[in-house]
């Protein structure tokens, strides 16, 4: 924890939207643009921190979340002496709980608080002059982070997988849930493109019921899959996840759509999910996700941060994985997205499936706002 309180003088939010070329396909919808919402906190000394708010859906969600950050988090965060980022996150949780119930906006408000929390931790680590993973209690020297190429669409997936393998990736995740014939044909093409010696996962994005998921798991077992992600809806009782784990041979992954610590604690304590995937911009920020990650590792499960946004959240996910430890991977979107690099400079390189983070203070990156001007979206703030 920082040695002195964090006094926030200014909280700001920034919205960006880049074209999705190609669009990102899932079993429940298509992303036709790549949005990003960043939040920054600045103290009286001019030291700053950056966070990212999940905003992929709905299509108007980015602008709305930025307004929520300015309307509700800014007046609560600015001008107070916070003993540390975790204290700020817990205070926001308490003070916005009734608002979340009143509005039915639990998801967007949790996502806004998550982004603010990441920014506070980035600021704290920069002030301390250490990498974030180190401030979180991680090792003095960061081990390499294992990553996988994600978001691989069902349209010509082998082409993208082969390109990412040439870039240095050694693990891949394919989107499924588009019919048994198409899914199996894509898996065959993927294995031909990447070989048998690399990790391959699949993500159904909540496409099936329990019976369909069990059939799919058995169908796909011959492809040597590392896990089957979100085959059922995230709100299916944990007893049914345990039953599904017994009914088919694949390791089950999920958790990106949980929205409370209790949900994660229950999933970790009970059989069913073997891979926990909280999203740092969707719930919990650094404070919540670190607790979940460490609990998962202690229980013998994998902690594999979910991320399909821009660069700040991706770098935060890597710091979290280093601090939590254990086996597993960090997700890296395989699709083109200029906001992944421009909003988190300097960028990173993947070598033999691994990323090595520099020992720079905080997250070690900052957005190039000038370069991102073509993607900037003006957000009306008069009402806030």
From TrEMBL:
Biological processes per GO annotation: amino acid catabolic process; carbohydrate catabolic process
Q: Which domain of life is it from?
A: Bacteria
Gene Ontology molecular function terms on file: hydro-lyase activity; magnesium ion binding
Q: Does the keyword Magnesium apply?
A: yes
The keyword Metal-binding is annotated on this UniProt entry: yes
Q: Name one Pfam family in it.
A: MR_MLE_N
- InterPro entries attached to this UniProt entry: Enolase-like_C_sf (IPR036849), Enolase-like_N (IPR029017), Enolase_C-like (IPR029065), Mandel_Rmase/mucon_lact_enz_CS (IPR018110), Mandelate_racemase_C (IPR013342), Mandelate_racemase_N_dom (IPR013341), RHMD-like (IPR046945)
| Gene3D superfamilies associated with the record | Enolase-like C-terminal domain (3.20.20.120), Enolase-like, N-terminal domain (3.30.390.10)
Q: What does the record give as cofactor?
A: Mg(2+)
* Domain (Mandelate racemase/muconate lactonizing enzyme C-terminal) ranges: 154-251
Cite the entry's keywords alphabetically.
Answer: Magnesium, Metal-binding
Q: List, alphabetically, the PANTHER family matched.
A: ENOLASE SUPERFAMILY, MANDELATE RACEMASE, MITOCHONDRIAL ENOLASE SUPERFAMILY MEMBER 1
**Name of the protein:** Mandelate racemase
Which organism encodes this protein?
Answer: Bordetella genomosp. 2
The taxonomic lineage of its organism, from the top, reads: Bacteria, Pseudomonadati, Pseudomonadota, Betaproteobacteria, Burkholderiales
